[in-house]
């Protein structure tokens, strides 16, 4: 992470101003859009429950890097290093094929109308709703970028080693509050992480040669079994105790030292964020309310740039992609 580059990149972030995002944006041009997206997500859940979490994560990795513009879905080209192989995304982001499937279903009914950037926003909402979490109205009308930037993703996306102070600061640069940070981290109520993301925490937290003292000992033992030193670091563990149900279990787990990632547990360790963790752990309604607010703010992130409705979410429409 380069702290020098970050302020420069973020200067260009504007929220909700360039394109007029609004609910029901496709009601005239593709009235079935939201039903179609939810339908494909339901099928994805039946095939593999985790894929909902994997697709929901896209909203974070898309919107933080040059706004919600589906840049993270672009494949690399000979002239453009995209975001799929960035530090946080390589061997980690998955279920791109679910978005392809949504796009294909939409193109059949209303070709060239619904952006991939909006698909991510609808699919993320549906993933949460279908997992037992809140349901909400999303604003639509985004355009897809013509390019992507691996460098921007490398510089912006936070590591699982990040502490709460760093995360508060990072989210603040996107006009997201401390409460937004804690609520949005509740996304880890569903899904899994790799041993890769927790090895240092288990064996050498902050270079001490010791595990993170914030671990509850039994939970730590469980992770030692899952992730021994010589493990294939692609092995995955659950991010909370109920990984296919979107609920406030994640916060209860943090309260008892059972957070998977250091960047999760730090929200309980740090006094500035602990109050929200405690509140959400005892009041699921408060968590859901704050979560919806956070997701809407996250979905509002935009930068000023040319855009289009991609035919295929993986490639810009019939033009050279090296336009930056
Ligand atoms: C606060 C800073 C955050 C950090 C440092 C972070 C980091 C991570 C890491 C390291 C993983 C596991 C990746 C792996 O081991 O391959 C993960 C998984 C995940 N993240 Fe985050 N994350 C953060 C915030 C968010 C937000 C805001 C969202 C959604 C809005 C989100 C959604 C997810 C989901 C759903 C998964 C599970 C994905 C799956 O099972 O495939 N995360 N995150
Ligand atoms: C930042 O967030 C605050 C509170 O949610 C809001 O009132 C304000 O308009 C936002 N600023 C920008 C630049 O979006
Ligand atoms: C948090 O991380 C930053 C750098 O990422 C470091 O400078 C700071 O000392 C850390 N703060 C705490 C309280 O550990
Ligand atoms: C732990 O990390 C520190 C600092 O990065 C490093 O010098 C040390 O060799 C590491 N120890 C082990 C056992 O990996
Ligand atoms: C995980 O799997 C990928 C793809 O099979 C491989 O390239 C990578 O080296 C593995 N990563 C780790 C940390 O073992």
How would you characterize the overall build of this protein?
This protein has 324 residues and is mainly alpha-helical. The protein has two domains: 5-158 and 298-303, Peroxidase, domain 1, CATH 1.10.520.10; 164-296, Peroxidase, domain 2. 46% of the residues lie in helices and 4% in strands. It has helices at residues 5-11, 33-47, 50-63, 96-109, 116-130, 150-156, 164-173, 178-185, 199-203, 217-226, 249-255, 262-269, 271-282, 284-299, and strands at residues 13-15, 192-194, 236-238, 301-303. The strands form two sheets. A two-stranded antiparallel sheet has the order 1-4. A two-stranded antiparallel ribbon has the order 2-3. Helix 8 (178-185) packs across helix 13 (271-282) and helix 11 (249-255) packs across helix 13 (271-282). The radius of gyration is 19 Å and the shape is globular. It starts with a helix and ends in a 21-residue tail after the last strand. Residues 1-12 have low confidence and may be disordered. The structure holds protoporphyrin IX containing FE and 2-acetamido-2-deoxy-beta-D-glucopyranose (4 copies). Residues 15, 175 line the site of one 2-acetamido-2-deoxy-beta-D-glucopyranose.
Quickly list its features.
globular; disulfide bond; 46% helix; Peroxidase, domain 2; binds 2-acetamido-2-deoxy-beta-D-glucopyranose; 324 residues; oxidoreductase; Peroxidase, domain 1
């Amino acid at each position: 992470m380069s702290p020098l580059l970050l302020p420069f990149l973020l200067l260009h972030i504007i929220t909700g101003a360039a394109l007029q995002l609004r609910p029901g944006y496709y009601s005239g041009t593709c009235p079935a859009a939201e039903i179609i997206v939810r339908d494909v997500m339901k099928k994805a859940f039946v095939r593999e429950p985790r894929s909902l979490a994997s697709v929901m994560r896209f909203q974070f990795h898309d919107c933080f890097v040059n706004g919600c513009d589906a840049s993270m879905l672009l494949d690399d080209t000979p002239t453009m290093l995209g975001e799929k192989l960035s530090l946080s995304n390589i061997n980690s982001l998955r279920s791109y094929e679910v978005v392809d499937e949504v796009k294909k279903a939409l193109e059949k009914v209303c070709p060239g109308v619904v952006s991939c950037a909006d698909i991510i926003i609808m699919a993320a909402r549906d993933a949460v709703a279908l997992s037992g979490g809140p349901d909400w109205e999303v604003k639509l009308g985004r355009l897809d970028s013509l390019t992507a930037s691996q460098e921007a993703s490398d510089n912006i996306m936070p590591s699982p080693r990040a502490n709460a102070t760093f995360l508060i600061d990072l989210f603040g640069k996107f006009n997201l509050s401390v409460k937004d940070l804690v609520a949005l981290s509740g996304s880890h109520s569903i899904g899994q992480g790799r041993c890769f993301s927790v090895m240092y925490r288990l064996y050498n937290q902050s270079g001490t040669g010791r595990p993170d003292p914030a671990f509850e000992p039994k939970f730590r033992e469980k992770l030692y079994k899952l992730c021994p030193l010589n493990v294939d670091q692609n092995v995955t563990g659950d991010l909370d105790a109920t990984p296919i149900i979107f609920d406030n279990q994640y916060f209860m787990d943090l309260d008892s030292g059972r957070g998977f990632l250091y960047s999760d547990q730090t929200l309980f360790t740090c006094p500035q964020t602990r109050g929200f963790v405690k509140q959400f752990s005892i009041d699921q309604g408060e968590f859901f309310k704050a979560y919806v607010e956070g997701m809407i703010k996250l979905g509002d992130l935009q930068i000023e740039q040319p855009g289009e409705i991609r035919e295929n979410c993986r490639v810009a429409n019939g033009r050279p992609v090296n336009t930056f």
